[in-house]
Amino acid sequence: GGLPNADGVVQLDASCMDGKTYNAGAVAGLENIKTPASVARLVMERTDHVMLVGRGALEFARSFGFEEENLLTERARQAWLRWRERLSDSDDWGPPDHLRGGDGDSGRLLEGPEEFHYGTTNVLAVDGNGDISGITTTSGLSWKIPGRIGDSPIIGAGLYVDNSVGAAGATGRGEDVIKSCASYFIVMRMREGRTPQQACEDAIDMIVDRYRAIGNDFVPGEKFVAINKAGDYGCARMPSGGNASITVRHGGGLETYEGSSRG
Ligand code: ASP
Q1: Ligand 1 centroid to residue 185 C-alpha, Å
Q2: How many CB atoms lie within 10 A of CB 258?
Q3: Ligand 1, residues 10, 53, 151, 180: which to mutate, most atoms within 8 A of Cβ?
Q4: Residue range 56-78, pLDDT digits in tens
Q5: CB neighbour list of residue 163: distance below 8 Å, 6 or more residues apart
Q6: What does the pLDDT look like over 99-108, one tens digit per residue?
Q7: Minimal CA–CA distance to 225: which of 260, 181, 175?
Q8: Could you give the CA distance from residue 49 to residue 55 in angstroms, rounded to a whole number?
Q9: Between helices 182-191 and 196-213, what is the axis angle to 10°?
Q10: Does the Cβ of 141 fall within 6 Å of ligand 1?
Q11: 118 lines ligand 1 (CB under 6 A)
């Protein structure tokens, strides 16, 4: 159900990291396979590589029996058609010029909501032995330039696990997460004694400060989650980084935790 790239093709990114074995796997730009995190896990467990992309990732998945299917849902296709038609007033998508409204625009736009989405899932886990692992999986930024890879499959950016410390994951504008090595940064902050909540907030502040340092008020939209070896957790987001809540599962069941909003 993820939104496609600018060509209307769903391209998926995912990563997987196991702290106990210091092992990682990832796929990027994977098409037609519904479960990219499972393919990333096989890259981790069944190869000596960390990342496979594009056609190579697809052939790898097929070799393990994954079935190809069309991932563009009808809802996502309709959203993509609206995006394409609304992208510019001076292209040829939409009704012919002589059938458009007087403002040059009305009658041109397919009806329906404008959608522009991030939509990544991070899952971080610590087990009863204190072993830590995580995955990050996504269709990435909607309407991205074909071939664009986000932070999600990049170990240290969209996901990082250190079995002696904890784990972190990112969602939101992947370009910033890559530039700041955000998940690695968060885990290193926890190594220095910060709580998961503080470490997530440190990452938000670090990125916002970098833009301020070049005299720019740009505040990107990211959200970070983290856990430590003791099972403590945290979450922080920038104002446009979605909501600051995460779902926590422990012996007692599921609960929602509200993190903080900064920036
Ligand atoms: N981080 C993802 C990306 O940039 C998008 C998301 O979080 O939904 O590809």
Answers
A1: 18
A2: 10
A3: 151
A4: 999 999 999 999 999 999 999 99
A5: 19, 20, 22, 130, 131, 132, 229
A6: 776 555 556 5
A7: 260
A8: 16
A9: 130
A10: yes
A11: yes
